[in-house]
Amino acid sequence: MILDRALAATAPDWWRRPGLDVADDRLTVGGADLEALARSHGTPLFVYDLGRVCRTLVELREALERGGLRHRVRFALKANREPEVLAAIRSLGRPGEAGSVGIDACSPGEVLHALAHGWNPEEISVTATNLSERDLDVILAHPVRLNLDAVSQVRRVGRRAPGRTIGVRVNPAVGAGYHAGLEYSSHERPTKFGVTADRLDDAIDAARDARLTIDTVHFHAGSGWLGDGLPRFERALVGALEFVDQLEAAGYRIGELNVGGGLGRPARQDEQPVDVDAYAAAIAQHVAPRDLVVAVEPGDFVLKDAAVMLAEVVTVERRGDVTFVGLDAGWNVDCAYFIYRFLKEIVPVRGPLRPRTTRVTIAGHINEAGDVFAEDYPFPEVEEGELVALLNAGGYLQAMSSTHCMRPVAPAVFLEAAPSA
Questions:
Q1: What whole-number distance in Å separates Cα of residue 388 and Cα of residue 245?
Q2: Over the chain (421 residues), what is each successive 10-residue block's mean pLDDT?
Q3: If DSSP codes are grouped into helix, strand and coil, which group holds residue 9?
Q4: E strands in 165-304
Q5: CB 38, CB 390: distance < 8 Å
Q6: How far is Cα 263 from Cα 279, in angstroms, rounded to an integer?
């Protein structure tokens, strides 16, 4: 299907920046020729710009400082656990140094992984859900920060570790997400996360029974929210501060407000990025009058646009009135659209800015109908054997890769580039 002339004359280039650009009519990451990397390493292939990872964390920290916030930055390990990524993050500062980034963990395995890759227990904050006794066997063996998201979890930890200091993850009944299904807190429907307002007194009673000290309030508004989601995040923040007030009225000294992560990255030209200075200012407006340290736990925001995934076009096939472009990669290595409905910008490696003259469905090689990366998507004419890059591939994807259909997971190349501007 031919597009109108206005669309046919343009190609999206909003994604261009230092570290992700075009040279000699080819897509580059960190100055590296992606076609050469794909021909050398095969496809599918992840390519990371580690400088981008570090620069994003530095920019976020600097925004929090400009906002006048006492803060702690912890990387959400579930977004990416690759040793090369963790080494880059650790290089920003050793334990206790200025610039050091801690770890947000959500399972015993992540706690052990962080410890094995150079983090001290005191730098690790654990916010998990539906903890089992087996989980607590591991977690309670280390002096990590532990935020509990259910009254039953408070009771369980109280039985296991009376007198311990804990945090409480709360549900402020408003959330923000890339779409409504990714809001982790809502007044319209219960979610699986957090102590709700009507159960806070029960959590306090459980803590008192076991002489637990509560020093942290944690909330997480949702996943992948963008610039237009900031007002909803701010409403969730205000709701969380009401929990702080109630806990302090009950006699607890709350020292840390953990605002979670969830900041996203644009996937289309019309999506509004998160302004980190506006984000810091929104937090400061409500927190500055209080004696609180603000903890932030970005994951996908740090990694998402720091990598691309390369794949080869292996099929171009017309079926009915739809042209399918089939890749040698599937949702087992890039589940962003399959699971989360996160959109992707997909760019030819050669001629990335050539006109997009058709609409296609870009599909993977997993034997399931839902294995697609884009539908009704403006794209240039491509031939079998061409290479394409799926942008925003740094967060979650490798961490969630599987061998479904006995398709292998994808290897990765890590570029030790200078931090991107």
A1: 52
A2: 50 95 97 97 98 98 97 98 98 93 98 98 97 98 98 98 98 92 76 93 98 98 96 97 98 98 95 97 96 97 98 98 98 95 96 96 97 97 98 95 96 76 40
A3: coil
A4: 165-169, 213-218, 256-258, 293-296
A5: no
A6: 10
